[in-house]
Design a protein that fits this description.
Number of helices: 4
Largest sheet: 2 strands, antiparallel
Order of helices and strands: HHHEEH
Strand order of the largest sheet: 1-2
Structural class: mainly alpha
Length: 126
């Protein structure tokens, strides 16, 4: 069986194969790069979101850590209580404070990354 020969296909290419292509940048990114008024609004929005997050995490950590002295004042028995031979105030201030700070830091990082990714997605769509 022989196959019928049809017209030969020819690939047509541009002689300028080394010409640099202009990168396609989203409008939002261009506005930020060119520092236009709209770009300033975008950046101000991002900074405000991150500032609100930072203040909320700091306030939450301050309430938890600031409650420790209040605990000692309102419940006098906690001042003299021993845990495995170590005074409770030492245990709280020397051990229990660090997990609170760690959790606050993890919450901040997780939410800050989410804010940045949402901002990048938003600006990339523009």
């Amino acid at each position: 069986m022989s196959t019928p020969e049809g017209p030969r296909r020819v690939r047509v290419t541009s002689p300028r194969t080394s010409a640099a292509r202009r990168p396609i940048t989203p409008t939002g990114t261009r506005e930020i790069d060119e520092q236009t008024r709209l770009g300033e609004v975008y950046m101000h929005s991002l900074i405000q979101s991150q500032l609100r997050l930072a203040l909320a995490v700091i306030a939450g950590a301050a309430v938890v850590l600031g409650g420790i002295p209040l605990l000692f004042v309102l419940v006098p028995a906690t001042r003299t209580l021993d845990v495995f031979g170590v005074p409770l105030p030492w245990v709280i201030l020397g051990v229990a404070v660090y997990p609170v700070v760690y959790v606050a830091a993890r919450i901040y990082v997780r939410h800050a990354e989410r804010i940045e990714s949402e901002f990048t997605e938003f600006v990339g769509r523009q």
